[in-house]
Amino acid sequence: MNAYVIFKNKLPDLKLIRNKFEEILLVSLKPTFSASFVPSFECASSRESLDYLSKIPGILDATAIIFSDEDISKETASRFAFKYGLGIIAHVVDFEINSGYVVAIVHSFENLRLKISGKSRPTVFIMTGEELLKEGKSLFLSKEIMPTTIEVEKDKSYELKNIKPRPENNLLNAKIIFGVGLGVPAMLIPRVYELAKCLNAPVVCSRPVSDLGYMDRHYVVGDTGIKINPALYIALGISGATQHLSGVRAKKIIAVNSDPNAPIFNVADIKINMKVEDIIEELLIWAKGF
Fold this sequence. Notes:
Pfam families: ETF_alpha. It is elongated, with a radius of gyration of 21 Å. It folds into two domains: 2-160, HUPs (Rossmann fold, 3-Layer(aba) Sandwich); 168-288, Rossmann fold. The protein has eight helices and 16 strands. The protein is an alpha/beta fold. A seven-stranded mixed beta sheet has the order 3-1-5-9-6-7-8.
């Protein structure tokens, strides 16, 4: 059984992977690391990464393709799995091998861990836990060999000059953060910003809100976005999908949602089962007097 490990700047825990697979091939998304495969230039978008991975010999014959917990790596994992019709499992913290199948151990809420078996071959995994790498570091697990360089097609739609700086620094110090989900009508989003301004709080969102163009993708929280750790997270119209909550490490959560069965209520400290539009004005009055 063999595995390809895809990464850019942060590598999944190889100690956990080493004992599960007979062969591990490291695939770097930038040419400055001594991995088994390197691109002709640094992959700056998931389109470039997908083109690169699609050209790597033998990758579709692997048992597992393991992606690091980085934005570009996770986005590429989704594109790769969709292109080839492969199963994909996220939030993986470890592996087991059972009857020839790779079983992913997945972190769920609190201390709960689930075992999920990948039935496709290969199966795509996104693994949490990471080691920040230094430029030029050799990553070979045994003997040193010459990396194979793969020519990558430039993604002309992606221009670095148009990429806005990520907001982590602002969010790292925020004690209160507001989250916007699809339960917030688009016309109310400016009111959410007004509400947040009263508390000097930034506003983030779920992936679908960004995909619809309502908020910038750099403010997406979750699997394919950023992680936040405020004292208080006020989630407005957010259903609470695992993909979003994986990026939330708040001490307290206030959730407003019209669906009484929304998963967000399972982790919320204060649950408000109402439409956002029916409570936004009351929240503004509260915030202005805070």
